[in-house]
Write a structure and sequence with these properties.
mainly beta; 6 helices; five-stranded mixed sheet
């Protein structure tokens, strides 16, 4: 089996007169340097206060599945054979004898390609970081710690569809990439404006281009106090504040999914720097461990943190980029700022906006990406551990972990509640047409039947990510040290 270090070249794409793409032009040999400098000081020389910090560049590899997408999306991997009626060939289970022509003629044809490709100077993700921290021994045996961190993207992966034409913003401030309207049956329709034809030998669908972007940064600060008491008791309490922003949060294993499932804030080719899906604004941690008789110990750990961010989206391809469900809603300040198919719905829409804090704050503009928050999350876990000495200094370590202690105590406690699992949240506006006079979509309003939900097993979308979040679980571990 051959192992290729570059994707296959698609001659038709290289020769495309509208958007030439060399799928074999794959990044390689782009050096990255990661110089760093750190320090650790005892300014008084008595060990009571330690000041530490550093600065430098940090380079890491991306998930290689992102790179692999370019190898299987060159436009050469698939052909389509469409046969109807009496021209359908006989069915066969032999994979080596699959039909290549219809009965009576009609050969298979390559579908419209949707290539994944990289700029030739693409670099692995790289971040610049500055940290400063201090530890100080307080009276009474307490130790206080303060840590500050600033992190700035240097080379972050950025994904866009290079086969779209930016038609500029509409009256909402939404950047448009095609036209919207209705079909002959009255259904909403969006037609992307592409650089290439949509059919014929020069047709290209979505052209998923990978580049680098310097957009993205994090500020964080942590304070922590800990103490070791007599009789084997230790306690620790800490709080972290963080503010993380990026242009696109890469949450998928597929290149097109990273593009498809990223809410659009600003133009596709240069999205706005907004709250990252990975932003955890507040986090509180409290833990305690006590040593018990017979070589046993008991620990209790509490973690409270801000819920994941999300944003409401429009149902329908409001910006005509070929994707349904990645467009943020325009939040009207009054009835003149939105076109409703049924204007009588405005009062209900206005009341719904008033009921959601993040929507209230966005009146008169497009809702910023990830400007809403899921509810606060609480986790309380416990561990019982035991060490059993054996021979020659060897020992067994036994552990019993109880996750979600609150739910173990009462089935109505420790419940995990959320509005949206992903950054693209629920929908309350449906695009149903185009208002040419005001250069904006026509909408209908439909409030969700349920907004905040408790996740027990499968979440409302059917994914498995929510399994056990609202249920207690127990884990037993055994380890032998020799």
């Amino acid at each position: 089996m051959p192992f290729n270090d570059t994707p296959a070249q698609n001659p038709a794409l290289v020769a495309n007169p509208f958007l030439p793409i060399n799928t074999a032009d794959f990044p390689s040999g782009n050096l990255l340097w990661s110089p760093r400098l750190g320090f650790n000081l005892d300014p008084l020389g008595d060990g009571r206060t330690i000041i530490r910090g550093g600065a430098g560049y940090f380079t890491g590899r991306p998930p290689y599945v992102w790179l692999s997408n370019a190898f299987v999306n060159t436009g050469l991997e698939q052909v389509t054979l469409t046969c109807t009626g009496t021209t359908v060939p006989a069915f066969t289970v032999d994979p080596a004898a699959q039909p290549s022509v219809c009965t009576g003629g009609g050969a298979a044809a390559a579908p419209v390609p949707s290539p994944n490709y990289f700029v030739s100077d693409f670099k692995f993700p790289q971040t610049f970081r500055i940290s400063l921290g201090a530890d100080h021994r307080l009276p009474g045996g307490f130790v206080a710690t303060v840590d500050l961190l600033y992190s700035k993207n240097v080379n972050q992966l950025y994904v866009q569809d290079a086969n779209l034409v930016d038609r500029g913003p509409n009256s909402e401030g939404r950047f448009m990439y095609g036209t919207i309207g209705t079909t002959g049956t009255g259904a909403f329709a969006a037609t992307p404006t592409r650089l290439t034809p949509t059919s014929g030998p020069d047709a290209i669908g979505a052209a998923v281009l990978h580049t680098n972007s310097p957009l993205g940064r994090t500020y964080s600060g942590t304070i922590q106090v800990q103490k070791s008491f007599t009789r084997g008791f230790e306690a620790n309490a800490g709080y972290t504040y963080a503010d993380t922003k990026d242009a696109i949060s890469l949450t998928s294993s597929q290149a097109f999914s990273n593009f498809q499932f990223a809410a659009v804030d600003g133009p596709l080719e240069s999205r706005n720097l907004t709250t990252s899906f990975f932003d955890v604004r507040h986090k509180v941690t409290v833990s305690g461990t006590v040593n018990l008789p017979y070589h046993t110990s008991f620990s209790l750990i509490y973690i409270g943190r801000s819920g994941d961010p999300y944003a409401w989206v429009v149902n329908g391809d409001a910006n005509a980029d070929g994707i349904n469900g990645n467009d943020l809603p325009f939040i009207p300040a009054d009835a003149s700022q939105i076109t409703l198919a049924n204007p009588a719905q405005f009062d209900a829409l206005n009341q719904f906006i008033q009921s959601q804090e993040c929507l209230q704050k966005a009146r008169g503009k497009i809702l910023p990406r990830n400007s809403c928050r899921n509810p606060w999350q609480n986790y309380l876990n416990a561990r019982l551990g035991a060490v059993l000495p054996t021979i020659r200094g060897q020992e067994f370590e036994l552990s019993l972990d109880l996750f979600n202690v609150l739910n173990f105590i009462d089935r109505d406690w420790g419940l995990y509640k959320q509005v949206s699992e992903f950054e693209e949240g629920p929908r309350f506006l449906n695009a149903v047409g185009f208002d040419a006079a005001n250069n904006r979509p026509i909408y209908s309003f439909a409030a969700p039947a349920v907004i905040e939900q408790t996740v027990f097993g499968e979440n409302p979308s059917g994914a498995q990510a929510g399994v056990n979040r609202s249920r207690w679980a127990m884990q037993v571990g055994v380890k032998y040290r020799f």
